[in-house]
Amino acid sequence: MPRKRGRHKACPHNYAVFPQPAKRGREARAQRPPFERPSLTPHLTAGYPDLAMKTAIAKGIQWGVLTVVAALSLHAQGNYEIQVYGSDTVAPGRTMVELHSNFTFEGFKQTVQGVLPDEHQLHETVEVTQGWNDWFETGFYIFTSYGPNQGYKWVGDHLRPRVRVPDKWHWPVGVSLSTEIGYQRPIFSADTWTWEIRPIVDKQWKSWYVAFNPALERSFHGPSVAEGLGFSPNFKVAYSVTRKLSAGLEYYGSLGSVTGFDPLDLQQHQIVPSIDYDFGPNWEFNLGACIGVTRSTDRFLLKMIIGRRFRFITPRLPRVLKPNPAGGVTD
Question: What does pTM read for this prediction?
Fold first, then answer.
């Protein structure tokens, strides 16, 4: 069963710059002036077709440049952890160590607002997750990057606590809630401090597995602060081909602010054919080819996740966090 979690970090799940969406509806009408002065351009250029053509070309170039810059700003320096989360948590007393390796073959080629390009970069993330009881875990991420003429660099760190509905509650679907906060260096993300909350729902039915992560993201420092909450849905469906091999399809999106989605060409949409292989109860392995379907998304990259569970420590929890054999937690 493809257990794990994840997300499209595209950045650590943030994107370098989200252009502020245009105002719509009532808000736009309220800010509209009482009347608009008619443009004199048609009258000035009526007898000068060359001037009219040059004016139209100049406006087209200006609009094109603004659109391209906005699109490039969206996906600079993402792709550190590309994974759809499952609802289960690491078992009490166990430690999961994972290495996320993502190489961008065709991506963002230019430096925008001081953020380095990601084409031909190798992004590697070390994720360490400690299970404390049957409903609570904490994860810690170390993001790194290696690229042409850039060398090996530290990108940032994130902290992620997560709770879930215990199996003994016998819910028809798996449910958990993850929240994550962290820092990225400004050469890798214009939004340096970000926060995410991720509801997680999944279900295993015979040979089929599905998971849905409707994540909400927020920037606390950077150009995306004014945008408020952003919506980044992730989805996975997989089928167990054999007892050890599962094949499936993953989807990662970033649609813009919840108060008004970005235009389609400025949104990020990524389709990922993937496999999960079971090397044993203490191992996890995932491999996928990520295909971007909008111009604001990296066109092609490969991702790989290798994880192993260890028993490094025996957690000593406060009494309130210890499981109660009668159900729930102790008082």
Answer: 0.74
